[in-house]
What does this fold into?
Amino acid sequence: MVLTGMMESILSDYQCSRLRRNHYHMLIQPHLEMFKLSSGDGDTSYGFNIMLRRCQRLRHLDLSYLRTVSPPVLIRLIPTLSHVTVLNLSMTQAMDQVLGLIGHHCPELRELDVSNTPITENGLTRLCYDAQQDRPLCQHLVKLSLTGCLISAKPVCFLLQYIPTIRDIDYDDIFQVFGVMRQWGLTEDNLQSCNKYQLRILNSTNEFVDPANVDIAIALCPYATVRRILLLILR
It folds into this structure.
C-alpha cells in the first residue's frame, strides 16, 4: 500500500507526471500486492517488464487503457497471477487465449474487467469452463464487465450456468440472456424447479426488451435490488 501510494503521489505531481526508469526500480518490489500502470506513466513497457519479473504476489492489477502491451505479453503475464483477485484489462489487447489462461491460472479472481476488448464468445466460454477436464473455472468470480464487447447473449448465459454465484455482469442486454434460456427450453411450468441466481443488477441498453424475458429474470434473480431498463430511442 505504501509503494502504491508513492507511485500515485509521483503521478499526481504536475512537475513529475511520468514515471522514469529509476522510479520503476524503486517502486516495483517483489512484495507489491497492488499495481496500476497506464499509458501515461512514462516508459510503460519497461515498468511492465519489471513487474513481470518481480511481482508474484499481486492481488489487484489494473492495466486499463494500456494498448501498448501486446497479446503475447499478456499471455506471459497471466500464469504469474495465481493470487490476483481484481484484474482490470479494459481497453487492452486482451483476447480469447488470455481469458482461457485467466480461467486456469487465476482461481482466486473475484472481479474481472475486459470491457471494450477484442474478446469473442469462445473466450468467454474458456474463462468459465475447461472442456478437456469437464470442470467449471473461476468459481470465486462475482463481478464481470463486458461493456463494449461484441458478444451475443448465448455465451453470457453459458457463463451464468457455470458460475451461478456471480453477482454482477455488466453486459449491454442482460435480459436477452434469459431469452436464451427460453430458447433452451425454460418455461413457466419448469421455472420453479430451476436454481436461483445471485445477480444483483439487471441492466439493458437495448431499444427493445421482451417482457417475457424480464419476468423470467426477476423470477430467477430474487436478490436483484436494482432493475434498470435503459431504452435507447433511435431517432
The first helix runs from residue 2 to 12.
